[in-house]
Amino acid sequence: MTKPTVPAAPARQKVGARVNRTVDWRAVFAFPNPVNEYAARITAGLVVLLAVATLVTGWGWGLVVLAAGFWLRVLFGPRISPLALLSVKVLAPRIGHARLVAGPPKRFAQGLGAAMTSAAVVLYFTGLQPAAWVVLALLIAAASLESFAGYCLGCAIFGLLQRRGLIPEDICEACNNVTLRRS
Fold first, then answer.
1. What angle do CA 99, 103, 104 make, to 5 degrees?
2. What is the pTM for the complete model shown?
3. Most CB atoms closer than 10 Å: which of 32, 153, 155, 181?
């Protein structure tokens, strides 16, 4: 007669043993896809307000604040940026139903904003303030197009680069497939 087998007890972890916790870096640096266009436009409007205030006052540290905000949005999406959080959590929901658009072009546009504001910071603090204000004026124009007219210049550049094959098609399927854009 055979004895019934008893499953082995699960291995116990020693007290004080090191637990292997891996960080999902893709989740840390995730950017939403799709994006609520209204939230993106509101964020652009807030950028315009902050940029105009910086330009009018001539306060160089305003450039640093703008650059930091863009870098936070590029790296972490709207989860950490104060302007994006205000847009996504407070202001956009008051508009009502979200209008969803592709996320990768919006992230690209945020990257262009990060590059422009970073350039303005470097120009300002190396003694080239007039050049910094010109770059900031260009940023104000681009952000105003997004906020007030719904035309994302960074998204248009993304699309052009994608059509030229410089950005792979699989980065944004919705950008390539016209039928996906209509739905």
1. 150
2. 0.78
3. 155
Nearest C-alpha neighbor of 183 from the set 156, 147, 173: 173
Count of positions (residues) in the chain: 183
Match 């160089």 to its residue by tokens.
60
pLDDT in tens, 81-122: 888 888 888 888 888 888 888 888 998 999 999 999 999 999
Pick the closest to residue 158 from 173, 175, 141, 140 (CA basis).
Answer: 175
The span from the CA of 31 to the CA of 77, in Å, is 5
Three-point CA angle 135, 108, 49, nearest 5°: 45
